[in-house]
Specification:
The protein is of the alpha+beta class. It has a domain of 137 residues: Gcn5-related N-acetyltransferase (GNAT) (Aminopeptidase). Helix content is 34%, strand content 26%. The protein is built from seven helices and seven strands, in the order βααββαβαβαββαα. Strands 1-2-3-4-5-7-6 form a seven-stranded mixed β-sheet, with helices on both faces. Helix 1 crosses helix 2. The chain is globular. It starts with a strand and ends with a helix.
């Protein structure tokens, strides 16, 4: 069966948490509250599904998200507009099958028409060279390093310019055509804020 990349559904958050916490030490732990935060605030929160099972996910937030990650805040202090990849997780038995590349192609396509830059980080720890090479093959470049205060983990801060963004912004002025492939997921957190006026 083919792999489908689609928006996560609310009832799948438990599966996302389990997948995240089985990924190993290169991925920060996550609880259901964090998954719900992503559900409510992430501009991009998609899963890879195959044979009815979730085999991976990617979460990305805009610079406006109320996110407290030190790496996210590092980018926000330096860049006015970006989409930040908070995490990508592929189930261990499914790694090496192209899901990571498919996610990165998809999130880049999503970001290209909305933000001038795509940001992420890679932890600088032994054995993580493949992750740096993976990001380099997608055109990311290091723009600095950050040491996370709580853990002392050093991260390589990576950025990629979205080449089509200037043309899209000039042509459409922030109002993209109403086409299925350009639609974004509704953000419950944003809708609640609009309803209460906060």
């Amino acid at each position: 069966m083919p792999i489908t990349i689609r928006d996560v559904r609310e009832h799948e958050l438990d599966s996302v948490v389990a997948l995240n916490n089985a990924a190993g030490p290169s991925i920060l732990p996550m609880d259901l509250a964090k998954a719900r935060f992503f559900w409510e605030h992430a501009e991009y929160f998609r899963v890879a599904e195959q044979d009815g099972l979730i085999s991976g996910f990617l979460v990305a937030l805009s610079q406006d998200a109320p996110h407290d990650s030190p790496n996210f805040l590092w980018f926000r202090e330096r860049y006015p507009e970006f989409l930040y990849i908070d995490r990508i997780v592929i189930a261990r038995p499914r790694r090496g099958g192209g899901r990571g590349r498919a996610f990165y192609a998809d999130v880049q396509s999503f970001a290209e028409v909305r933000w001038p830059q795509l940001a992420c980080e890679v932890f600088l720890q032994t054995g993580n060279d493949p992750a740096l090479l993976f990001h380099g093959s997608f055109g990311f470049r290091e723009v600095g390093q950050n040491v996370m205060p709580a853990s002392g983990i050093r991260a390589s801060m990576l950025l990629k310019e979205m080449c089509s963004y200037p043309f899209v912004a000039e042509t459409y002025g922030g109002k993209l055509p109403d086409l299925p492939w350009l639609r974004t997921r509704p953000l419950p957190g944003r809708q609640a804020a609009l309803a209460t006026g906060t």
